[in-house]
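In this section we turn from sequence analysis to structure. A common task in structural bioinformatics is to predict how a protein folds when a small molecule is present, because the ligand can shape the pocket around it. The inputs are simple: the amino acid sequence and a SMILES string for the ligand, here adenosine-5'-triphosphate. Study the lines below before reading on.
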Amino acid sequence: MKASEICSILDAKVFNEIDEDLEIDSGCGCDLMSDVLAFNHNNNVLLTGAVNPQMIRTCEVVDTHVVVLVRDKQPSEEIISLATDADILLLGTHYSMFEACGHLYEAGLRGEEIQNDF
Amino acid sequence: MTFDYIVDPTEPERAGRASTKFKGVLKELGVSPKVIRALSIAMYEGEINMVIHANGGNIHCEVDADKIRVIMKDSGPGIPELDKAMKPGWSTASTQARELGFGAGMGLPNIKKWSDNLVVETEVGVGTTLTMEFNLT
Ligand SMILES: Nc1ncnc2c1ncn2[C@@H]1O[C@H](COP(=O)(O)OP(=O)(O)OP(=O)(O)O)[C@@H](O)[C@H]1O
Ligand SMILES: [Mg+2]
């Protein structure tokens, strides 16, 4: 699924100008950065209600390049510029976490298999 | 080649700069994406721990032909029950750290998972040193 499709499915606002042609293979809905770090990610989109610089830094570390802020959360200028510097497309949707994940799932996007291999 | 970073404890919201900087260095050196990813996650977990559990510290990175070694040293409170701390789910993280999305007790297990070798030296009241290694071959 292309990032641009995610945009239209979620009726999303685009906060920065990063490539929307990016191909996305899986989705992850998570507010807990500990979990984002513990799971495996490959070309995924993160849906989150966590709007702080640490969330962007975490995405940078796990190579997540598309983030959707749910429930109309507004990022600060600082967060937008951090995202842009990290080459992360920052989107916002009016849908709740549950609804937003549901819409993407319905459109065929899946989560990654979770390996609890600790 | 060696690279050194200082981890500033005063701005927990901004922790992780050393890890993302070193990640950029490794990209430029042409290290494989798989190793970069494993190392960045492990180093970032360590860096967050230095900020939320200790008072910051120093990171020393050595890039050799066959491996990369990352040494993270703090003079924080130390870890009294290391065997528990190494297990998923054990955490003493503060409310502030939890508000940033940390404190699931997954950091140390995650560092162990992503590194090829991990040594934790810790002494209560003295500090903690993590030495992690990543094979390049
Ligand atoms: N550098 C350190 N100095 C002192 N105590 C530490 C340090 N690193 C870890 N600890 C202790 O070990 C516990 C487990 O650490 P771990 O990184 O696994 O989990 P966490 O930091 O609490 O949560 P998470 O990493 O999931 O956000 C911590 O809660 C803390 O008590
Ligand atoms: Mg931790």
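Strands of chain A lie at 13-14, 26-29, 44-48, 66-69, 89-92. As an exercise, try to locate the residues that line the adenosine-5'-triphosphate site and compare them with your own expectations.
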